[in-house]
C-alpha cells in the first residue's frame, strides 16, 4: 500500500549517495567512531559513546524526500529514537539550558544543518546506524545519521560527529558558500518548506536541473574512494 508522494516530488528508482557538491569528496574520516560530542548552551559539554548503546534499538521503514524533488520509498533503518537519546542522555548528562531548542548537527565532512527540537521529538526521528540490516556505510551516513522522514533530505545529517543545543541561531550558518536561504528553519516535506523567501516553483526548477550533476559528482567520488580502499565499504 503506497502513500501518495508529497507535493512536488517524483519517485527515483535508486537510493544513491547524494548531497551538496562541496561534500562530494569529503567522505567521513572515521566511519567507525560512534561517539558524539554534545555541546552548545549546555551545562556540561561532553562526548557520549557507551551511553548510546544503552538505548532501546528500533527499526523503521520510511520514505526519503530530497529537496531537489527526488524521493525513494521504503528504506529500512535501525538505530535509536532521537527523543530517547535526548531524554536519557542529553538532558540527564549534558543538561541543556532553558530554551536551548535550536539544534545543530555537524558531520565529519564539515556539513552542518539546523533542526528545531520539537520536530526532533517525533517518534519517527532516529539516530540511525543501520540500513537494510547492515551498518550504514560511508555512502549513506556512517557512523550515525539522522532519519527525519517528515523533513527534507538535507535536514537528515549524515556522518554526525556533534550535536549542539543552542538558545539562538548565532553560532550557526548553512555551509559556506551555500546561501542561508537554502536552509529553511523547519524544512517540513508536507508543507513544502524547501527554502526561505523563494517561490517553490523556482526552487524546484533550479534544484531539479542541478540534481543530476550532484549525483554524478557524489558517485564518482565514492567510486574513487572504493578503488583506493576496496574492502572498506562494499554497500550499494
Ligand atoms: N554530512 C552530510 N549530510 C548530508 C549531506 C551531506 O552532503 N553531508 N547531504 C544531505 C542531502 S542534500 C541529502 S538529499 C541526503 C542524502 O542522503 P544519501 O546520501 O544517503 O542519499 O543527505 C543529507 N545529509
Ligand atoms: Mo538533498
Mean pLDDT: 95
Percent of residues in β-strands = 25-35%
Ligand kinds: the ligand Nc1nc2c(c(=O)[nH]1)N[C@H]1C(S)=C(S)[C@@H](COP(=O)(O)O)O[C@H]1N2, molybdenum atom
Poorly predicted spans: none
Number of domains: 1
Number of H- or I-type helical stretches: 5
The CATH architecture is Alpha-Beta Complex
What is the helix fraction of residues, given as a range? 10-25%
CATH secondary-structure class: Alpha Beta
- Give the topology string: H per helix, E per strand: EEEHEEHEEHEEHEEH
Biggest sheet architecture: 6 strands, mixed
The coarse overall form would be: globular
What structural keywords apply?
236 residues; alpha+beta; binds molybdenum atom; 11 strands; five-stranded mixed beta sheet; 5 helices; 25% strand; Sulfite Oxidase, Chain A, domain 2
Structural notes for this entry:
The protein is of the alpha+beta class. The chain has one domain: Sulfite Oxidase, Chain A, domain 2 (Alpha-Beta Complex), CATH 3.90.420.10. Helices cover 23% and strands 25% of the residues. The chain has helices at residues 50-53, 82-94, 117-120, 137-140, 200-228, and strands spanning 10-11, 36-40, 46-48, 57-65, 70-81, 102-107, 112-116, 126-131, 134-135, 145-147, 160-166. Strands 1, 4, 5, 8, 9 and 10 form a six-stranded mixed β-sheet that branches. Strands 3-2-11-6-7 form a five-stranded mixed β-sheet. A hairpin with a 4-residue loop joins strand 4 and strand 5 (70-81). The structure holds the ligand Nc1nc2c(c(=O)[nH]1)N[C@H]1C(S)=C(S)[C@@H](COP(=O)(O)O)O[C@H]1N2 and molybdenum atom. Molybdenum atom binds at residues 18, 66-68, 153-154. This is Molybdopterin-dependent oxidoreductase. Residues 35-168 form the Oxidoreductase molybdopterin-binding domain.
